Amino acid sequence: MLVEICANSLQSAWNAEKGGADRIELCSELAVGGVTPSYGLLKSVKAHISIPIHVLIRPRSGDFTYSDLEFEIMKKDIALCKDLGFEGIVAGVLHEDLTLDVERTCSLIEAANGLHFTFHRAFDWVADPLSTLEKLDAMGANTILTSGQQRSAIEGMDLLKQLQERETSASIMPGGGITPSNVHTFKDNGFKAIHLSGSTSVKTLPTSPRIPMSAASNLSDDIQTITDLETVRLVMERAK
Q1: What domains are there in the chain, each with its CATH number?
Q2: Burial grade of 158 (CB within 10 A; 0-12, 13-18, 19 or more)
Q3: Of 9, 43, 63, nearest to 202 (Cα)?
Q4: Which among 88, 96, 132, 141 could disulfide-bond with 116, CB atoms 3.0 to 4.6 Å apart, if both were Cys?
Q5: Distance between CA 233 and CA 228 in Å, rounded?
Q6: pLDDT below 50 — which residues of the chain?
Q7: Which long-range CB contacts under 8 A does 107-111 form with residues at least 24 apart?
Q8: pLDDT (tens digit, 9 = 90+) per residue, 51-61?
Q9: Rounded to 5°, angle at Cα 221 from 215 and 224
Q10: Distance (Å, rounded) from C-alpha 74 to C-alpha 193?
Q11: Contacts of 182 (CB under 8 A, 6+ apart)
């Protein structure tokens, strides 16, 4: 069974490789479900890590419905990953009604031609996972990362098994809440690959800073935090 580790830094990627992982999904900002890593991180990980690396292509946190400009960013990031020699990409696009955006996902698969394509956990939002699996399979997706539409893959095992029974060329990779204590369950059920971060919290400062830089109010799947045009206009008017 292949073990893919979701790594959010060079240190995480190094630990994953040293621990024996078969493959890495590279991203940044695990707290929001991951976003595309920076150019510097891509270059550094490629230079220091020898196991296969798949790169998350997600231009921002929140939902998986993107503007035209955001979609262009995604395609440019895929082109960069190809140029840098990465083995795969991880991406996906939905409509606002949480159905699969077939046209745009097809476009990403075509852009990634030659690279392994994983459709990520946007799959866990779709209303009809079985028909969505069939569509992704027909489109040429190689892997579908899913928790079985539950908070953890253990809780989603019933759906994961149904998906596994129907898989053809697109294989089901369980992810979400996988730990050393439950990994045997996925192996015993015949899954070919699993996905986990294997992360732990490490204290980096002796005391907590007085002023927080994290804002819990920004961590919402159905809300985007953007710069407000009118606020900028008012500040500029009053400042100048």
Answers
A1: 2-200+216-239 (3.20.20.380)
A2: exposed
A3: 9
A4: 88
A5: 9
A6: none
A7: 107/71, 107/75, 108/57, 108/74, 108/75, 108/78, 109/139, 109/140, 109/141, 111/75, 111/78, 111/79
A8: 999 999 999 99
A9: 65
A10: 26
A11: 154
Q: Which residue has the tokens 């939905």?
A: 94
Tens of pLDDT, residue by residue over 123-149, are 999 999 999 999 999 999 999 999 999
The dihedrals phi and psi of 135, each to the nearest 5 degrees, come to -65, -45
Measured between alpha carbons, how far is 144 from 57 in angstroms, rounded to an integer? Answer: 15
Alpha helices in 140-228 (DSSP H): 157-166, 183-188
The partner residues of 144 in beta bridges, in order of sequence, read 119, 172
Helix, strand and coil percent figures for the chain, each rounded to 5: 40, 15, 45
Strands (E) across the chain are located at: 2-7, 23-26, 53-56, 88-91, 116-119, 143-146, 171-174, 193-196
Query: Which amino acid is it at 163?
Result: L
The residue type at 17: E
Number of other CB atoms surrounding residue 78 within 10 Å: 25
